[in-house]
Amino acid sequence: MIQPVTLSAAQPQFATDNPQPTSRNLGLDGLRGIAVLAVMTYHFWPSFLPGGFLGVDLFFTLSGFLITGGLLRSMEGRRFPDLRGFWLRRARRLVPAMILVLVLCTALALLAVGQLPAGLRWQWAGALTYTSNWMQIAHGNSYFSSVEPLYFQHFWSLAVEEQFYVLWPLVLVLLAGVLRKRGALMCGILVVAAASAASMAWGFDASTDSSVLYFGTWTHGFGLLLGSSGAVACANGQVVRRGGSQRSRMLIQLLQILILGCLLVAFAVLPDTSVAAYQGGMALFCVAATVLMMTLRNSGTWGYTLLSHKYLRWLGQRSYGLYLWHWPLLVLAQTIFPPQAQTAAVLCVIPLIFLAAQLSWQFVEQPILQYGFILTLSGWAKNIAGRILQVWNGATSSFGAVAMLLALVLVPLCATSVLMASPAQSQLEQQLTLAQNALEEESKAPVVEEHQPLTTDDAQRDNSTKKPSKNETARKKFTGQDVTALGDSVMLASSPQMLKKLPGISIHASVGAQIWDAPARLSELKSAGELRKVVVVGLGTNGDIPAGTLEQIRSVIGAKRELLLITTFAPRQWISHVNDSLRAAAESDSKTHLIDWAHTAPTVDDMARDDIHPGPHGGAAYGQLLADAVRNL
Q: Which of 513, 559, 514, 511 is nearest to 535 (CA)?
């Protein structure tokens, strides 16, 4: 029978069926461990686990499930939940470790001399106010195609969760007051979750960057809401518990293994920018995760036993610290190590991440969780005072005390100096911004016909008396005014030099541009009458070429136009396949030609630290390749 929602009545039936409703669910700790492993692997080796970003959605679903379950239990014995206590517990759990990571990682950024992380001041402001997601949206940051990722980019998910922690208890009380039955409450939450998922699906456009949808609290809040609905369903007692029939237990166990397998497959096969991910994929993943969590209330099942393995639980208990530390340390290592040694950077930073997470858990997170802010801080103060007294008295064994005191002084000073020195934009971002501004100015300038100057009287006499050969008569000499170029940030970085080498060229390049968007973009230019006789495509840096894309490009531009395909150069797994496809297309069609940037780029000594984007001299080499190819058509 469905129990009414009450904030003051006696305990509902499900509480008596399970005598330990508040005991720690070790299986959920294991799920946390899987989630953080997925996220870390996705960031370390994105091509190996393209769907590892779903680990964040698993975190969201876990948070909604656990937080709502706790709130429902607190609402059973009183008319209104203890929100002060709830928010204080959340602050104890989240704030100390975050402050520690902010200060220490900012100080460590001094190791990247000359390449300090950009935008640290506003990133700190977003972290401390738990508005990082909206800060990143306001600054136009891209999660999927940023040329230089933010130092604290991963704080966006902490902001979404904290906003949920602040608002959801009040919303839950309101919904519980309106929807008096638990079944109605669950359905109401599911409706809101469906609306959130639908807003992401409706707003998705494959031709634009989807980071706004990914960062948005509302558009990416369905995981938290689905987890909450699962908690309400469990509170209604509609989950198989210990002591159920053998058949029902077997079905639950098979369901657990099936769902767990599906989650792991999603990690492996669902790309982060795919249509499927945004138009239902992430939401379905959260639905499956919610169902799995609901079944894990039974501690005797296969799924529970598997997920409560001690190593998974160890990871799950430290998942917050691992998540906090892994990203800035990875970015820092990739900055310090040369582009050719990025694998070494990852391998070196992994043990440091686990060490930092363990120390944070042991000396910061656990003490504050167990004793609270006041007792822990007073204990630290007494310890520091004792160390100061030890140094003052000149104790022979005071070296450790001196080192600790120096660290307490120097680390905050270093962090402050880095914050003050952090530029608003990185060098590469400044270069791309200037290039984008130059393109905008160029697009406003009137088109001027290009004329070949005659420099000597002999040249004039030769031109007036010499009869052109048949080959020269048949050959069309193209100029920049005959060229439309479509590209990504590599072309954008080279665009000032391209404009110099080919005056009048029309360049349409942007950060994060994808090759599968090229047919639609070229079709738009064609419809607007802006597609010229020579079409240049410089895409493929940000993703592989889907089957049939090059054929679509050829079909859109028509049989009479010349097509120039620029090979790509980047330390990414799909690059070789992209270049093979481009070469095959050039060999199969007389009107399609290859510009081999992949062959030239390794010889360029003016590349950004990502070993992808050329600097001014590299851009000149890029532009010269294009100019030579156009004039040789």
A: 559
Q: For residue 200, give the 3-state DSSP assignment.
A: helix
Burial class (CB in 10 A: 0-12, 13-18, 19+), 337: middle
CB atoms within 10 A of CB 84: 8
Q: What is the DSSP string of 6-26?
A: -SSSPPPHHHHHSS-TTS--H
* CB-CB contact of 600 with 620 (8 Å): no
Residue with tokens 């093979």, as numbered in its chain: 580
Q: Buried b / exposed e across 465-478, counting CB within 10 Å, b at 16+?
A: eeeeeeeeeeeeeb
Q: Tens of pLDDT along 579-617?
A: 999 999 999 999 999 999 999 999 888 787 777 888 888
Q: What is the pLDDT of residues 203-213, one digit of tens each?
A: 998 767 788 99
What SS3 class is residue 432? helix
Q: Which helix (H) or strand (E) holds 212?
A: helix 211-215
* DSSP states along 323-374: HHHHHHHHHHHHHHS-GGGHHHHHHHHHHHHHHHHHHHIIIIIHHHHHHHHH
What is the rounded CA–CA span in Å between residue 538 and residue 547? 17
Structure confidence at residue 445 as a pLDDT band (50, 70, 90): low
User: What CA–CA distance (Å, rounded) separates 60 from 201?
Assistant: 18
Among candidates 104, 151, 146, 106, which has minimal Cα distance to 132? 151
Residue 126 · residue 151 · CB < 8 Å: no
Length of the chain: 633
Tens of pLDDT, residue by residue over 113-136, are 778 899 999 999 999 999 999 999
Sequence letter at residue 422: S
Cβ 488 vs Cβ 511: under 8 Å: yes
Helix-then-strand count for the chain, H and E:
28, 5
Count of CB atoms within 10 A of residue 127's CB?
20
Give the pLDDT score at 409.
87
Task: Retrieve residue 170's tokens.
Answer: 């009040």
Closest residue by Cα to residue 272 from 43, 13, 502, 60: 43
